[in-house]
Amino acid sequence: MDRAQKEELVTSLSEVFKNTSVVVVAHYSGLTVAQMQALRRQMKASGATVKVAKNRLAKIALEGSDVAHVASLLKGPTIIAYSSDPVAAPKVAVDFAKANDKFVILGGAMGTTALNVDGVKALATLPSLDELRAKLVGLIQAPATKIAQLSTAPAAKLARVFGAYSRENEAA
User: Fold this and answer.
1) What pLDDT digit, counting tens, does each position of 50-93 carry?
2) What are the distances in angstroms from CA 85 to CA 14, 19, 46, 149?
3) What string of H, E and C letters represents the secondary structure of 81-126?
4) Are 7 and 86 within 8 A, CB to CB?
């Protein structure tokens, strides 16, 4: 890498650190190329991104950002996963770590809050933004459905009563 490429990488990484809501740092040594590609595909499918960057350049990019405290985790072969959804990157990282024991989560950050391994796992258990939106829409639609059922229920009960009387009269 020449100096211009390094400067470009640092500026792109600093933009990432300023604009994302969650960052997860993990060790990836021992993973095969196929496993790394699978991790990248899973992250991309959930709306997250994975970067392998030189630790020195990543530390320079972290300076002045809200997640600057993550710099202490950047030792050895590290990978940086980030997303704008606060649950997407941690969820994929934790699921991938369960399946691959060589992928070790070190910690991360959500905004100005530092996260240890347990914090990342706790974030992974939360529902994603899309799931929360779906639940909210369901809650909004539920009362309308119940009102419709209540308004048609008396008419249905009356019809059953009239039907029972007519069968009773026919039998007599």
Assistant:
1) 998 888 988 888 888 888 888 888 888 999 999 888 888 899 99
2) 18, 11, 9, 37
3) EEECCCCHHHHHHHHHHHHCCCCEEEEEEECCEEECHHHHHHHHHC
4) no
Eight-state DSSP code of residue 32: -
Q: How far is CA 90 from the centre of its chain?
A: 6
Q: Which two tokens stand for residue 46?
A: 């959930």
SS3 of 54, please? coil
172, two tokens: 């007599």
Single pTM value for the model: 0.71
Euclidean distance between CA atoms 166 and 145, whole angstroms: 31
What residues have CB less than 8 Å from 105, skipping those under 6 apart?
Answer: 24, 25, 26, 93, 94, 97, 117, 120, 121
pLDDT digits (tens, 9 = 90+) for 129-156: 778 788 878 777 777 666 666 666 676 6
pLDDT value at residue 161: 72
Q: Is 64 helix (H, G, I), strand (E, B) or coil?
A: coil
